Amino acid sequence: MDARDGAVREPDAFPVVSAPDAAWPLGGRRRDRAEWQGVLEDAARLLRRIARTLAAARPTSPSTLDRVLDRLHEARPSLLAHARRVSCYAAVTAREMQLPRLARLQIERAALVHDLGKLALPDALRTAGGPFTTEELMLVRSHSTIGAELVHGVPYLRLTAPLVLHAHERFGGGGHPAGIAGEAIPLGSRVIAVADAWDAFAGAPDERDDRARGCANVELMRHAGPHFDPAVVRAWMRASETAGR
Question: What is the pLDDT of residue 195?
């Protein structure tokens, strides 16, 4: 069955880096070849498990989506908590921008699943100390592509796929995966990027005070233009008095 039948297509291989040679660029420190093969196999196994879980759950409403996300994030509840905060911030920003209701709903939903592809990153990557190697960075950055492929296979989430795919682009260009810039980036992705960054800039939720929130806003403004859509940043500033808690 394909996605049109309501099922999630199970990927045949891990996208972008489906074989060791494809993720073995020149330069930089390299893992042992056999070790890197193991990392890719672990990633492919995790990806298949996520796809099977989505296929079995077939979410069709906010409540059924919440349940499947809880199940998928059992080992990483902090990642889901982050996604839920980003979804809230993206929603209030979209409302401040007076976007149509359907667009707001899709942005809110896309923000909730924007990091779904990170669940396919093995512990060997997430817990590695020090900077990423070149091949590790390629794999980590592929999480946007992975997430977009996963949600595209779910009818309830299919319209969020482009927003998930481009949530890590930069307004001034040079982001990933496509390196597009400005209004070529879907507006929903630009909203999610601001909400995602603010949550990271503000630090641990239980330690946020007015100073932390103010510093996060300063960082957003400092990067408006090169990284973030200035219009979206301004909308967040107007909305953040009540949302950034």
Answer: 97
